[in-house]
Design goal:
82% helix, 0% strand
Length: 148
């Protein structure tokens, strides 16, 4: 069933991107407990990241864990390919890791981008606050000098 995805690059040349996406969509059993658990995992991590987006330490920790999981995706795919009978009803874990890339690493990379952009935004807000405090302190110092 997943022979098409073992040569995904060649198939993209022969098919349109929409056809390749639709064939991937139809090849996956979306009611399988493994797939549902993976989707729930992503939903929980995204929700946690959203709720804690104003806490720099928590966001940084989530970001590092997400990057570590993406780094380990190839090893996880290889391990899952060896034991796919225990995980699912069909072998989703091909040698090229298309399934792992699309359903595991892809959402994690999107989350990593969100976290990184959020950290940049928070840093810019903090920079503005620091600069405003600096200007207030400078103005206060000027006022004190004029009064003396």
């Amino acid at each position: 069933m997943f022979d098409k995805f073992s040569s995904f690059g060649k198939k993209l040349e022969e098919e349109s991107l929409v056809e390749a996406i639709l064939s991937f969509w139809h090849a996956v059993n979306w009611r399988e407990p493994f797939i549902l658990c993976l989707l729930c995992f992503h939903a929980c991590v995204f929700a946690t990241a959203w709720v804690t987006r104003r806490h720099a330490n928590v966001s940084s920790t989530i970001f590092l864990v997400v990057l570590l999981l993406v780094l380990c995706a190839k090893s996880l795919n290889t391990a899952a390919a060896a034991r796919w009978e225990h995980i699912s009803t069909q072998n989703y874990f091909d040698r090229n890791g298309i399934f792992a890339s699309v359903l595991f690493s892809g959402p994690l990379l999107l989350l990593g981008m969100f976290l990184l952009l959020n950290m940049i935004l928070e840093s810019s807000r903090l920079l503005v606050k620091v600069k405003q405090a600096e200007l207030r302190a400078h103005a206060r110092t000027k006022r004190n000098r004029k009064q003396d």
